[in-house]
Amino acid sequence: MVALQRNLWVALVSIIGILGAFSCTVDGVPRRILLDTDVDTDDFFALLYLLKLNRSEFELEAVTINTNAWTDAGHAVNQIYDILYMMDRDDIPVGVGGEGGILENGTILPNVGGYLPMIEQGLSTAGYCRYRQAIPIGLGGRLDIDSNFGIRKAFLPQGNRKYSPLQQPTAQQVLINKISAGPISVFLIGAHTNFAIFLMSNPHLKKNIEHIYVMGGGVRSKNPTGCCPSNSTSTCQPQQCGDPGNLFTDYTSNPYAEFNVFGDPFAAYKVIHSGIPVTLVPLDATNTIPISQEFFDTFEQSQGTYEAQYCFQSLKMARDTWFDDQFYTSYFMWDSFTSGVAVSIMKYGHNNNGENEFAVMEYMNITVVTSNQPYGISDGLNPFFNGLKVPKFHLKKGGVHSGHVQTGLRDPFCIVKNSKGKCKDGYTEETTGPESVRVLVATRAKPNRDGKSPLDREFFRSFLDVLNNPLQTGRFNFTTQFPYYKQVLYKPDLRTKKLGKPVIFDMDMSAGDFIALFYLLKVPMEVIDLKAILVSPTGWANAATIDIIYDMLHMMGRDDIPVGLGKVFALNQSDAIFSAVGDCKYVKAIPHGSGGLLDSDTLYGLARTLPRSPRRYTAENSKKFGAPRDTDHPELRQPLALEIWDSVVSSLKPRSKITILTNGPLTNLANIILANATASHFIQDVYIVGGHINRSISDRGNVFTILSNRYAELNMFLDPLAAKKVFDSDINVTLIPLGVQRRISLFSKVLKGLDKTERTPEAQFVHRLLSRLGRLKKNNHRYYHMDIFLGEVLGAVILAGDHSSLKPTFSIKPIKVFAEGVESKDGYTYIENAGKSVKLLENVDPRAFYDLFSQQLGNEKQSAVIGSFDDQKRMWSTPSNRTKNSS
C-alpha cells in the first residue's frame, strides 16, 4: 500500500510538473540559474531547494562560493561537492577562489578569488578582515558553519570530486563560462565580491544576465531581536531592537547593515548600480518569516528524503546550540526564502509587479552606503583614496565612496556615546537623486492560503513539499552509501607496555605539523607516550580542520588519543565586548588561497584520501560546560585545550612530568600558564619549533606577506604576546629556530630517502604529500614557501632523542621576543642579556636527518591499521568487514 501511494504521488507530481513547465520556460528551454553562496546553513537549504525543482523549468547551472563571509573556502567547496554527489548532480561545476589581484590603479587581474573585500584586495590573498571580523570564528560562527555543526562528515556521502591545488575551477572561470553560454539569472546569497568583480571585468557579458536576485540588506526593516519583553523591568536594556540591520556583534558601531551586504559594501554597490534588473529580498521580508515552533515540529515529522533529513538535522542543531531561548523569534528563513521568491517570480514571467506566491513586493529607490559623511575629507583610512593621485577605479573625489570607511569592530569614528552607532557601511538606504536605483523589494512574507494549517507562511508549505518530493531526491547518505558500513574505533592495548615519557603535541595544523604527527606516532611507545594533541586555530588552518587530526589518528590506530581545541584568537585579539569576534592583526599574514588556508584546510587536496574517523568535531554541548542547554549527545562534545591539559595532568603518575612539543603559535601554552600558576611544575621541557635568530642583515625571517617585518618567524609573529609570555616564564625551553630548520628542507633529499624505505601506508601518504608540495613549489610562485613545512618536522625528530647520528649541537642563549604591537617588529626573537636562558639548537647533520626520518616512517611497527578511505570503501562494500585491534 505504501509503495502504491508513493507511485501515485510520483505520477501526480510528474503531471503537475509537466503542466507547470509550459508557464516558466522560454521556447521550451528551462530558466538557467547560477547560485553564488557563502555556504551558511540556510544557504544549502536554498541550494537543495533549487536542486529539487523541475529541471524542465529551472536548471541550476553552477555554484560559485563567496569566501569572505561565513565559511572558509576549503571546507565550503568540499561540502558543496558532497551535497551535489548525494543529489546525483556531479555535472554542476563549482567555482571557488582564484589567485588574481587588483592593482593600485584599479586594474582587475584575471581570477581574483574574492577572499577579501574589494577595498582590501591587493595582489595577494593575504589581507585584513575589515568587515569579516564581525563574524564569529569559533562556536556559533565559522567553525560551526565550516563543519555544519559536525553533521557534514557524519551525514553527507563522499564522492570523487574534491578540491585539488591548481586544478580547482575558480569562481571567475565558472562565472565567465556559464554566463557566456546564454541568458541566465544570478542568485546572490552571500557577499557580492565574486559577482561585482565579474561585472567590472566583463561588461560585455552583462547582456546575458536576465536578472539578479539578492538576499541581503535592510531598507525599512526593524530588527525584532534584542528587544525587552513588554513585562520587563527597567533594568532591561534593548540591544539591536528596531535597528535596520542585523550585525548582532557590532550594532553599537553600525546598526544599519546586514551581514551579506556588509561583507563587501563596495561590491554590493557595484551590483545594485550595474544597470541589470535587481530583486532584493532584504531583512524587511525575512524578518517576517522566522522559524516558528509549528514549522519546526512539522519539519521534524516530514523527513522523507535524505536532503530533508540533512536540512532538519542542521536546523535542529542550530536550535539546540542557540545562545539564548529566543531561537523561534531570532532565526529566519533568509536564503531559502529568497530562492523561493525568485523562482516564483520567474515562474510568473517577470511581470512588472514581481507577482509571486510567497512575498509582497514593492519598488523602492535605494543605494548601498560604502562610506560615511563627510565626503572628500581624508582621514587616512580609506584605501580607495589614501596616498593615490588618481583614486582606485577612478572613483570621484568628494563622491559617495570618499568618506570614512568603517575600519572594523568598535571603530571610534562610529561610536556615539549613549546612542546608536553612526556608521552606515553596507546600509541599503532609500534615497533619491542620481545615486538612487529602482529595485524590486520584498517587504513581507505572505501568509499561508490555508488558514487551518499550522504553517503560517505560504513558503513553509512549499519548502517542505519541495524537499520531500520523491523526484530528483538524494541517493544515499554516508552510512547508507555502503552496504556493510560499520563504525569502528581503533585503540592499542597498552596494558603490557612500558610507556615512555609523556608528551603533548601542540600544533596549528600546517602540512608540516601533520607530517610531524605521523613521525611522533611512529616513535616506539616505549620512548614517547603521546598523551594528547592540542590544536591552535590561530595559525595555518581554520578550527574545523581538526577533523583531519581525528582521521589521521584513526588511520594509525590511535583513537585513544584525545584532541583539545584551543582558543580561536591570539592573546589580546578577541573583542572585549563580544569575545566570539575579534581582530586578525597577526593571522592576516596567512594567505587565504593557494599555499595558505585553502590548502591547509584540505591538506593540499589529500585530506579526503585519509580513512574517515567516527570521531570528529561536533557542536554537541552540555550545560555542565556552560552551554545554555544539553544537546542530544553531550558526551560527543569537542573538548577544549585547557580541559585536555587538566585531564592529562590529573592522570600523571607521581613525580612524572610532561614534555611539550609546539609546532605553531604559542597560544595554547601561554593560556595554560595564564590559567594555572603552577603549570610549570608539571612540565619537564618544552620544545618550540619557531623563532628566528638572524645572524646578518640579509638573514631574514619568513613572514613573507608582511614585507615590513624582516626578521620574525611566523610561529612567533602569529601570537607574539603568547611567545613573550612563554619566554618570560620559568619553563625549560629548547628552541628549534628557523635557521637550522632551513638546513633540512630539501624536498629532493627527503623524497629520495622515502623512496628507499618500506612502503607503509603512512610513508606512502607522506611521500605523496611532500611530492605535491615540492612540485607546487617548483611550478607556481604562490607555493614558493613550501619548504617552511618540511623544516617543521625537525622538532619531532629532536624530541624523540637517541640521535647520535644527527650530531645535534646546542648552545645556551638569553632569548627575548618583541611583542609591543608594532607590526614591523612583533615576533622578532633576539638575544639579549636580560632574556631567558634557552637551549638553542644550532646545527644537525642533514643527511642523518633525512635517513632517520624516512626509516622511522617506513618501519612496519606501529604502522597504519587502515590505510586510506579507499580501503574503507572496499571494507564497507564486502560482507566480511571484520577488523582487528578494534574496540
From TrEMBL:
Coiled-coil blocks: none
Record's protein name: Inosine/uridine-preferring nucleoside hydrolase domain-containing protein
Residues covered by the Inosine/uridine-preferring nucleoside hydrolase domain: 33-371, 503-850
PANTHER family in the record: INOSINE-URIDINE PREFERRING NUCLEOSIDE HYDROLASE FAMILY PROTEIN, NUCLEOSIDE HYDROLASE 3-RELATED
InterPro entries noted in UniProt: Inosine/uridine_hydrolase_dom, Ribo_hydro-like
Record GO terms (molecular function): hydrolase activity, hydrolyzing N-glycosyl compounds
Species for this entry: Eucalyptus globulus (Tasmanian blue gum)
Family as reported in the entry's similarity comment: Belongs to the IUNH family.
